[in-house]
Write a structure and sequence with these properties.
The protein has about 90 residues and is α+β, with helices and mostly antiparallel strands. The chain contains three helices and three strands; from the N terminus they run βαααββ. It has one domain. The longest helix is centred in the N-terminal third of the chain and has 14 residues.
């Protein structure tokens, strides 16, 4: 298991958790297609790009779906954590 965590704005953490949960049911072919699609997508600093290459690459290499959690903190932030099973 590889785990990492960080303080984030709570709304950003919620978005990350939703993205990671959406990757969970995808099979390897679907993850590969999503990775290639994201790789070809032009970068737009003004627009949210969805699952980034890093998340897609981790999901492709993990032996189980990624797990994400978000714990609310009193200051409008949250503690986001991500676990990958290699």
């Amino acid at each position: 298991l590889v785990s990492a965590g960080n303080l984030v704005e709570f709304a950003d953490g919620e978005r990350l958790v939703r993205i990671i949960e959406a990757l969970g049911p995808l099979d390897s072919a679907e993850l590969k297609a999503a990775y290639k699609k994201q790789l070809r997508r032009p970068r737009d600093a003004e627009r949210d790009s969805g699952a980034g290459l890093g998340l897609l690459d981790m999901a492709r290499k993990a032996s189980r779906p990624l797990k994400a959690s978000l714990q609310a903190l009193p200051d409008g932030q949250g503690f986001f954590s991500l676990t990958a099973t290699i």
